[in-house]
TrEMBL record:
PROSITE patterns: GNAT (PS51186)
GO MF entries: histone acetyltransferase activity; protein N-terminal-methionine acetyltransferase activity
Keyword terms of this UniProt record: Acyltransferase, Chromatin regulator, Chromosome partition, Transferase
Protein name in UniProt: N-alpha-acetyltransferase 60
PANTHER family: N-ALPHA-ACETYLTRANSFERASE 60
Upper lineage: Eukaryota, Viridiplantae, Streptophyta, Embryophyta, Tracheophyta
Family membership: Belongs to the acetyltransferase family. NAA60 subfamily.
Organism annotation: Canna indica
Length: 254
């Protein structure tokens, strides 16, 4: 049981979304989002049909023992290879069962905001994703003008990976979206700083090995020094190119 911070005297508990939440869940979605969701979506949420969700309920002022729904997060487990972010993940082609958790919707009723409820809901999602061995990340899209949500995900240490032009089409207008990713279970992006460091380390290790072996062979064969340098140079360019590609990918996806 969790006490939200701030002036509220409410007692908020977190539990799965239940069939009894159907009506309120739908009402809150209509109130909070510019996108209209089909009835089937809500039915799938409350029945847990392919959707895993959590509810934040206020049990302090409610007659119902299930409490009053004041927040929710809905997610779907998807195969990484079928997602749009395969390029943001490092996994071998042999690992076909790598999964991701996609956040479909997250919302907190206005009166209950800024009391850490969304934080607790998203922590549940991260805990769930981390508990799935083959899961590598939690990700989502946020419409580009939704500053509270953008700040929220940044505060939760999600990485802003890219801006998708004209991703949403709402009421006859296009809007960009931001793609946020939170890596779990040692999942990481191929363009993470760690990968760049690893690539540089590998480059220097290979260069060193190559120089040593060349030197060794030249000593034996008495080959003049300059062709050796030429070869080293060409390798340098190739290797540098590879690193530059990694750096470029980083600037593209952030
Ligand atoms: C975004 C939303 C879910 C946040 O819910 P919440 O319960 O108020 O969030 P929390 O209290 O856990 O906030 C945690 C952090 O998010 C950020 N944040 C939340 N609301 C913010 C706001 N209005 N402005 C700026 N930052 C905000 C802050 O960094 C905050 O940390 P702080 O309290 O230490 O400053 C809520 O505003 C909401 O339901 N919005 C409408 C629906 C929506 O936009 N959903 C997200 C679409 S993906």
């Amino acid at each position: 049981m969790l006490e939200p911070r701030g002036a509220h005297r409410s007692t908020i508990v977190y539990r799965p979304v239940l069939p009894s939440d159907l009506e309120v869940l739908e009402q809150i979605h209509v109130a909070l989002f510019p996108i209209r969701y089909e009835k089937e979506f809500f039915l799938n949420v409350v029945r847990g049909n392919g959707i895993v969700s959590w509810a934040a309920v206020d049990i302090s002022h409610s007659d119902s023992h299930n409490g009053k729904l004041v927040g929710f997060v809905t997610t779907r487990l998807i195969l990484a290879k079928e997602s749009e972010i395969t390029d943001l993940l490092r996994f071998s082609a042999s690992k076909k069962d790598i999964t991701l958790v996609y956040i479909l919707t997250l919302g907190v009723v206005e009166h209950y905001r800024n009391h850490g409820i969304a934080t607790s809901l998203v922590r549940e999602v991260i805990k769930y994703a981390s508990s799935i061995t083959h899961c590598r990340a939690v990700y989502l899209h946020v419409i580009s003008y939704n500053l509270p949500a953008i700040k929220f995900y940044e505060k939760m240490s999600f990485k802003l990976m890219r801006r998708l032009q004209r991703f949403y089409y709402i009421n006859g207008q296009h809007y960009d979206s931001y793609l946020f990713v939170y890596y779990v279970n040692d999942g990481h992006s191929p363009c993470s700083p760690l990968n760049i460091v690893a690539a540089v380390a590998t480059y220097f290790r290979d260069l060193f090995k190559m120089l040593v072996s060349k030197l060794w062979r030249n000593e034996e064969r008495h080959i003049p020094r300059w062709p050796k340098c030429k070869e080293t140079n060409s390798l340098l360019i190739t290797q540098n190119k590879r690193i530059v590609v990694t750096e470029n990918s980083a600037s593209q996806c952030v």
